[in-house]
Write a structure and sequence with these properties.
Chain lengths: ~300, ~325
């Protein structure tokens, strides 16, 4: 059997593996590749740099100075103040609404997915496979195609134009369930559950005290991605809400953008700096959340994408 | 009160020895790993109940509505599949679906190729500043698509967009990013900007799980970086690539946010039926044709499910051969 690849045996019988790992660590860095990737990085960061620069400008400066550099009279603080005070501080409402919708949805969705994923991974019951496959098939049904049907149903039962219209649909995350099931199968050892049962712990207690702790990285992944999905959600709140005081930031900003457009896109429009500054403010919390929690969401994504 | 004690003890005992001990008992082997009882359904129930109410019920209700029509005389009448017949012959809907299909065919391969190249570059260990580059490329994912579309809309714009400013200064004709011919490309650019980093992270995370000794073995065999990428990394990426492809199918076909925001600055180019989803929206909320809107949403969902399964089936068949 000469076709059998000898590579693994060779590797495992190498007397001293240190030279290899040493060589790996000392591998040269590639300057051309680094430069190419930095060029790519510029493409991704330049629009954000533009946004930062633009939010320091008055409407006149937006039109009269070069977009990718600061003007002589930066006024970031004045723009921020104007953004927060426009229309009796409606922007603050939008920020708070967004935070509430996103945090409640994310916590709820993560907990529901964790409990169900744990239930599917560690228990056997009638119809478990059918139920799981049903949910799995739903991953393909896009949120936006579901939004209008949900609106029609919610209009029937009087949930339209309430915060629940945003939160409830965000609680059901089929992909989150799939991820948590895969994660729970590996991360929660059966032996541990057996040991806890022998010690007389109830199932609920085992879940909340032991399993949930082991599921934490997967949980944070679902939490974070639901948070982003809800934070960035536009279609659902656009169709569900009429009251500007209930708007999340996305719908609010787009209504301001429409005003800026209708008030003439010319240099007389006062809304333009507000749209730009409001956009900048709206992305700061999420960027910080991702940077702080990177350890979690990266490992969680790895689980979801390797096991298929 | 007992729980903190046993949980730490159990945690310290760790995984392998107890599992092995239990697994050898024949009774355990017969009913592998999972436990039956009342607890399982209780853990699953909250999710499933909400799934039923918020996923299946709206779909069912839309399916029901799609079988009716509101008429000036006679009110709401049952019309069977008439709405579907109308929809399948509706040029606005067909153009909308055609446009997102074209968008999918152009934008998705480009985006996934970039994501793949970036992930391989990051994983090669040849980069300086790899961490900064990785996070920087990912950052746009945290930007709401509304903000991304507004921002790029202004960047594309003829008045104070930097591209227009630069070409004015150089006495060159300004590129018409928002014109009819460019619009689909401009939209593709926004979506690519938003999601390359996300897909890159999924692929990169999958690459990190390739066992190190595989690379060491390849190095012993004298395989170079390209050879390793082609023969080890790409096969290892299959499931992750499939996942990103599926998400991209779903994302492209329901394209709404970006065109709906650019519509405000280029109303002559983007009509209210530019994408299928935009069409469903305007039917429901400006046209007030609720029954027909339900039909269109239902059909659009169906198109996406079919496209997703087509992707899955093709991938599985190719894996089998």
């Amino acid at each position: 059997m000469t076709t059998m690849t000898p590579a693994p045996t060779v590797a495992s019988t190498v007397p001293d593996p240190r030279p290899i790992s040493h060589a790996r660590r000392r591998r040269t860095r590639s300057t051309p590749l680094t430069i190419a990737m930095l060029a790519a990085l510029a493409y991704f960061l330049l629009p954000l740099f533009w946004l930062l620069v633009a939010s320091t400008k008055s409407t006149q400066d937006l039109f009269n100075s070069f977009g990718l550099w600061f003007s002589r009279t930066p006024q970031l603080l004045a723009n921020i103040r104007a953004t927060f005070t426009q229309d009796d501080g409606v922007f603050v409402h939008w920020l708070l609404n967004t935070a509430v919708y996103a945090v409640v949805s994310a916590l709820g969705a993560a907990l529901l997915a964790a409990a169900a994923g744990y239930g599917f991974a560690k228990f056997r019951f009638r119809g478990d496979r059918a139920a799981f496959n049903l949910v799995l098939g739903a991953i393909m049904v896009p949120a936006t195609a579901l939004a209008i049907p949900t609106y029609l149903l919610f209009a029937k039962v009087g949930l339209v134009n309430t915060p629940w219209a945003i939160i409830l649909p965000s609680l059901v995350n089929p992909f989150g369930l799939y991820l948590m099931r895969v994660y729970a199968a590996d991360a929660v050892p059966d032996s541990l559950l057996e040991a806890a049962r022998i010690d007389g712990a109830g199932e609920a207690r085992i879940f909340f005290r032991i399993a949930l702790r082991l599921l934490a990285p997967g949980l944070v992944t679902v939490l974070l991605f639901t948070l982003v999905a809800t934070w960035n959600n536009y279609f659902l709140p656009l169709i569900m809400l009429n009251d500007p005081n209930l708007y999340p930031i996305t719908v609010g900003l787009s209504s301001w953008a429409a005003q800026a457009q209708n008030g003439g896109a010319g240099a007389s429009s006062d809304m333009l700096p507000l749209v730009v500054t409001g956009s900048l403010i709206s992305i700061v919390p999420l960027v910080i959340a991702f940077l702080l929690l990177q350890r979690y969401w990266q490992s969680g994504l790895a689980t979801g994408s390797v096991k298929q | 009160m007992a729980s903190p004690k046993f949980s730490t003890v159990a945690l310290e005992q760790g995984v392998p020895p107890p599992t092995a001990a239990y697994a050898r008992k024949p009774r355990r082997a017969h009913m592998p790993r999972r436990r039956s009882g009342a607890a399982g359904p209780l853990f699953v129930a909250p999710f499933l109940i909400l799934f039923l109410l918020l996923f299946l019920a709206p779909l069912g209700y839309a399916a029901y509505l799609s079988l009716f029509q509101q008429r000036l005389i006679g009110g709401t009448v049952f019309v069977g599949l008439d709405n579907y017949v109308t929809a399948l012959k509706d040029p606005l809907l067909l153009h909308g679906v055609g446009r997102v299909a074209l968008f999918f065919v152009i934008q998705v391969p480009l985006m996934l190729l970039l994501a793949l190249l970036f992930a391989l570059a990051l994983d090669s260990g040849l980069l300086r500043l790899a961490r900064v580059i990785r996070l920087g490329i990912f950052v746009p994912y945290a930007v709401p698509s509304v903000v991304a579309a507004l921002m790029w809309g202004y960047l594309y714009g003829p008045d104070f967009g930097p591209f227009a400013q630069l070409s004015r200064n150089l006495d060159l004709p300004a590129p018409h990013f928002l014109s009819d011919g460019w619009m689909l490309g401009s939209l593709a650019n926004i979506v690519t900007w938003e999601f390359v980093g996300y897909n890159m992270i999924i692929l990169y995370a999958a690459l990190r799980t390739v066992p190190q000794d595989l690379y060491e073995a390849a190095a012993m065999d004298g395989a170079g970086a390209w050879r390793v990428a082609w023969s080890i990394k790409l096969p290892a990426l299959r499931p992750a690539l499939l996942l990103t492809l599926l998400f991209s199918v779903i994302g492209s076909f329901q394209l709404f946010n970006e065109p709906s925001l650019l519509m405000k600055i280029a109303p002559d180019v983007i009509s209210s039926s530019y994408t299928a989803n935009l069409y469903a929206y305007s039917l429901a909320f400006t046209g007030n044709q609720v029954n027909y809107a339900a039909t269109v949403s239902f059909l659009l969902g169906l198109v996406i499910v079919i496209a997703s399964y087509a992707v899955l089936l093709t991938a599985n068949r190719r894996r089998a051969t």
